[in-house]
Structure formats: structure tokens, C-alpha cells
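Observation: inputs received (chain + magnesium ion).
Thought: call the complex predictor directly.
Action: predict_structure
Action Input:
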Amino acid sequence: MSDTHDHKSRLGFLEKEIDLLRVQNQRLSELLSEQERRHRDLEERLSVDARSGLPNHLRLSHELDADLSAARNGTERIAVVILKLDSRMTLMTKTMKPTVIEWILYQTGQRLLEAIGPGDSLYHARDDEFVLVYRSVSDANALRTRIAAAVDVVGKPHVFSGYHLAIGCVAGAAIFPDHGLDRSRLLHNADIALEYARSKGRSVKFFSERIRESVVEKMELQNAILKALESQAIKEISRQFLVFFQPIVTLGEIGKDSVRIERVDAEVLIRWDHPTRGLLGPNLFIPTAEETGLIIPIGNWVLYRTAEILREWSSGALGEVRLSVNISPRQFASDHLFENVKRVMQREGRERLKFEITESCLMDDPMLAVARMGRLKSEGVSFSVDDFGTGYSSLSYLSKLPVSSLKIDQSFVRHIEKSKQDRTIVRTILSLGREMNFDVVCEGVENEQQIRILSEDGCSCIQGYIFGRPMPAQEFRLVCEEFLRKPVSFDRLKALSMANMV
Ligand code: C2E
Ligand code: MG
Ligand code: MG
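Observation:
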């Protein structure tokens, strides 16, 4: 009897224990699934860009790897396209509130989502980079059209509190299996195509071996230049630097076959006579020098040479020539620019010295620019805004800056005969110049027709190959005297524009 009772109570106890264990087990599995859910949530959040709401580089790696391993067993071709927003986005990131940037990125993502097909994917891989993955690619031309459409849709203006903000982009594409078999090779090659497109001013480029060679060659050249710049004392290098001069002319009357030139000024443009590579243009070494800070000694040397030239050219026709010197962003930001100007340049020379500063450099920190320019102006230096129209000048700041001229970027002049839109832009800048009392110079003028169009639209200051390519000082002296002597025939100008084509 007591045995049976013992047995029953033991069973009851065990049942309770089992119930308790069940409850604990239940709690544990609830906790585990809660943990899993959180983990998934975290993963989800980590793999999405918070601003655009699009999957980011983590999802891109994961999904593209999966796509490629599936495609390796079949015949499907997959295109990987990197689409990078242009420098206006960088500028905006510096100048606009984060909410505006978030809004632009979100809008860009939404536009791209609409532009891709149902089987394709879109990722927001880095701040200013989107990656599109097109599946089942069969026709390269059709693909190119679709990428071009995506580029177009990104470039449409964003309307924000009355502002129209347009941000362009370029795209580089690589195709599986032709341009690579794995994710990293495909992304690398798409990046090379993108770099090439950017350097050539194109909006879409597909990877090819030729492109790779050209990009790699450029990178190698830049590395070699960098090494040379670093290893040699600046005094040594300065023996290899030259300054060239390109005429900036003020036009008088334009006749049927000739044009009267009323004044001649010049832009000072640096060249590097490299011991093994020959004469190198500034685009090959200035960006590297700017990145490394070597632009400061190089820029000082240009200033020093310009001061020498201004002293040499102190009488006759050359005594009237004003020289425009390019000042890079880093030079402009340097605290020593003011002291250097005072050190190398005599007071009288400074009246004939102009600094060309790009729009984006001025708009980086407009208040600082006003202060710096004010100090230099009090020493006699005047200012031009270079490549005007390519950045985002705020008109209210522009009116506060002590600027005397605007140089319309050559990209607006290049097709002015054919493009109604470019002509309208140039006209608008010219009338802005008149209203705000700026001289306006048109850069990149290459033929008679462009001279006539610009003159009709009220532009009398012109720089471009048609009035001579950048040339050494002795040659400039002859050209300057010839221009001021009597009207110059268009035939002569044409010959001049072909000279020194190197
Ligand atoms: P930039 O200041 O806009 O100079 C004008 C550039 O346009 C020059 O190129 C000039 O040769 C070119 N150009 C002039 N007319 C025409 C034309 O009719 N058609 C075409 N296609 N091009 C024309 P360059 O000499 O190669 O200089 C390129 C850039 O390098 C300059 O652009 C300037 O930003 C920079 N640079 C040149 N010298 C210096 C310098 O001493 N210091 C700094 N910081 N930058 C410099
Ligand atoms: Mg310039
Ligand atoms: Mg320019």
C-alpha cells in the first residue's frame, strides 16, 4: 500500500518536473526564435542602405555570388553596371543639409527602380555609387540603350524648395562571362570602364581589353610622375617646368574676312618637359600634384615665373598684357598664398595679375573665399571664376565675391553652332555678366562661326585655339604684336589655330 502511494507521488512529482521542463523548453525555443528574428532584423538592416532603402554592398556580394554560381552551369549572360553620380553630388554633400542628400539618394534609387526590368536588381553600393545587375542579357545594343535610359533618368533635375538640382552620372559595364567569371573581377572591370567613360566625358562605356590598357597606362604614368615629383627636389623639377601663354583677346569690329583685336591678355598654362616622356600637359600631373600637396611648391613656382614675365613685359604692347594664373583649390586654401604674392610680385605687377579660381573651389567655403579674396584684392590682384557653369555657384555669394570676370566653360561653347540649349546657356551667362558687372570670357573657341555667334550674342572676350594654342613667351610676343597691328584675317587665324598642335 505504502509502496503504491510512494510510486504515485513519485509519478506525480516526475509529471510536474516534465511539465516544468516543457515550459522551460517552450520559453527557450521562444527566446531562440526571438533571437533569430532579431538577428534576421539586424542582418536585414545591415544589408540595406538607410537613405535610399535599397540593398547595399553586402547584399550585392551575397546575391551576385549566388547568381554567378547558378549562371556558371548555364548559358545566361549577366551584366554588372556601376553607376556613379558626378562631382556635383560631392559638392552638394559638402554644402547641403543631410536631409536634402538623403532625399536626392532616395529619389535616385526610386527612379532607377523604375528604369530596370523585373528580373534585374539594383543596389546602393557606396555613397555615390549604384550597381545594376541585368540578367539574361542577349543583345548588347539593347542593353546599352537600357543603361543609357538609366543614366538619363538619374540626370533629370530634382526640384526641391524651388531649386532645380541636376546631378549627372556615368556608367561602366562588364559582362559575365566575357569580362570576368567572378564578382570581384566583374566589379573591377566595370570600375575600369567607368573610369574610362569619365576621363573621356562619355556617359556609358563597356569594358574591353583596350580600355583596360589605356586606364592602366594612365595610372602607371601618374605613378611615375608622382615618383619623379617626390624624389626630386622642387628646384630640380622647376628646371623642367615651363609656362606657356594662350591669348585672351578683346574683339573690335568683325568684317567679312577679318577681325580687329583691341586688346590681348593671356592665360598662363604650365607644361612639364619631362626628360624621358617629353612635353606633358597639366591634366597629366596637376591632379596628382593637387592630391599629394606638391601643387603648393609647383604653384609657387608658376607665380614666381609669372612675376618674372610681368617684369620683362613692362613696355610697349606687352606692357599692357594682363596675365591670368590658375590657382588650385589647395593653393587657394593655403595660408601662405597671400604672403607668396607679396613676396614674389612687385606692387605695380599685381595690377596686371589675375587669379583663375574654379567655381567649385569658391563654393566650398564661400565665407572663407570672400575673406581671402578681399585680402588679395587689397594687394591689387583681381579674380576670374574659371570653368563657369560646371559647378554650383550661388548667385548671392557670387555677387559678394570680389570677382571681375567669369570664364564660360568650353563644354558650352564646343557645340554652340548646333546646340540651341548650349547657346541659351551662354547667352544667359552673358546677360548675367552684364547685369552683375562682370567681364565674360568664352573659352574653347575654335572656329570663325563660333566667333560670329558669340559676338552676335554680346561676347567680345574670347580664348581658344582660333586665336592661338598655348605657346612659349617668344611666340606670344610676336602673335600679340601681330594682333594689335591691324585686323587679322580669318585665314590667318585658321592657320594659327593649327600651329603647335602638340
Ligand atoms: P583651364 O584653366 O580651363 O585652361 C584652359 C584649357 O583649355 C587649357 O588646357 C587650354 O589649352 C585648353 N584650351 C584652350 N582653348 C581651347 C580650345 O579652343 N579647344 C580645346 N579643346 N581646348 C582649349 P591645358 O593647358 O591642358 O590646361 C588644362 C587645365 O590644367 C587648365 O584648365 C587648368 O585647370 C590646369 N592648369 C594649367 N596650368 C596650371 C597651373 O599653373 N596651376 C594649376 N593649379 N592648374 C593649371
Ligand atoms: Mg584656367
Ligand atoms: Mg577653364
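Thought: report the result.
Final Answer: Residues 406 and 440 are 5 Å apart (CA to CA). Residues 267, 326, 356, 386 surround magnesium ion (ligand 2) (CB under 6 Å).
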